[in-house]
Amino acid sequence: MHELHPMALFRLSVLGPLVSRNRLERGDLKRLIREIANREHDIPGASRQHIAEKTIEAWYYTYCREGVDGLVPKTRSDQGKSKLSHAVQEAILGAKRENPRRSLDSLVLLVETTGLAAKGAVPRSSVHRLLQSHGISRPTGAASEPEEHRSYTAQYAGDIWYGDVMHGPRVPVKGRLRKVYLVSLMDDASRLLAHSAFCTGEKALDIEGVLKQAILKRGLPSKLVVDNGSAYRSKSLQGICARLGIHLIYCRPYAPEGKAKLERWHRTFRQQFLTELDLTRIHDLADLNARLWAWIDEIYHKRSHRGLQGKTPLARYQQDLPRIRQLGQRAGGLDALFYHHISRKVRKDGSVSYDGQRFEVPYALSGRKVWLVVDPHAREAISVKDDDGQSLGEATPQDLIANNHRRRRKPDPQAQSIRTVSQDNSLVEIAYRQHYAIDGAPATETSAEQTITDTGVTDTEES
Questions:
Q1: What is the fold, at CATH topology level, of the domain defined by 160-323?
Q2: How many other CB atoms are found less than 10 A from the CB of residue 359?
Q3: Least packed by Cβ within 10 Å: which of 65, 338, 391, 403?
């Protein structure tokens, strides 16, 4: 399984509001592209935070033609070079610094009217790359229209899931009190909790574990809306969603109205679960989660909801069961989709380490760097792969006792003989045999002055 390019995953997340729609009405494409361009984005490897509308449009059509692989950036043949003359470059940079609000067209017109370049000789794209390379391409002081917010509901269950984390109580975990976090995934149309669980952290691994259980219980959503936290920005979560055809959409920072239903669930949860919870009965994390799941299934899912015209979340969800995307044949390989790939160098004893444990891999890989495929939820290594995603063998827990009786691999005698033959055919040995006519090899012709006999007297002296 190939790792998806980080930039391809980022571009797919930017396109989320576009590609996650089943159908675009007239005018929707330009409107959504404009909205995406007006947002701030955490662009990998760049200091800027905005993406041009034309760039977003190009990404969209590329994705429609080639899928997520088409979003992998392609290296320009002229990267780092500018076709503009030094004088034109200096004039453009000076004019932009003098007035940052100058557009590309204004800068092109300026160098044309001053006679520095002929009309049509300065492409806008060249000017844009020049400004971008000097970090002055972003316009400042641009006017913006008031942002419009409207309430909405997904038409069908499974269309949209929301994900968020809430701080929970302190409970015993492995013998000591620890704070836990409630990770929840809610279906928008039905308000049903696809899955919710208390975890010891709010990292990507915790969120992926909840997502995996939600998919097993409730099928595949079309969209997953999350906030901009680092856990949700992890490449592992982005890769999982991309492979399952789930469009991962990020809420804008400081815009909680995008997940109002989930915020309402958190308020209900505090009022009806946490206030009724007797922490003296909680002995560990599993005990707490057992009560959580019982309360969700027996109380929350079976209570009528005003926002659902009196229906219960469970009844509203079951109404759309025929439309829910099922895993189908992918169910058998679901675990593999949630595996992580981590870089490791194989030790001289043919082992690698993961999560404080040693795992043995094929001994021939000793000293090589490999990708270790691990199941982070089971905390075990599965196999090793190369940079191209090709399997190099399995990874098994190291057994030191068994290794004490294991038959060691020894050098192959046939291989040794092959090496001996190859050494006999080295250039030094061939020259030696030819020079002294060893093994029937003809001696090379040399001058009398350069030929020395066994007695140390030259042929010339002897004559």
A1: Nucleotidyltransferase; domain 5 (3.30.420)
A2: 23
A3: 65
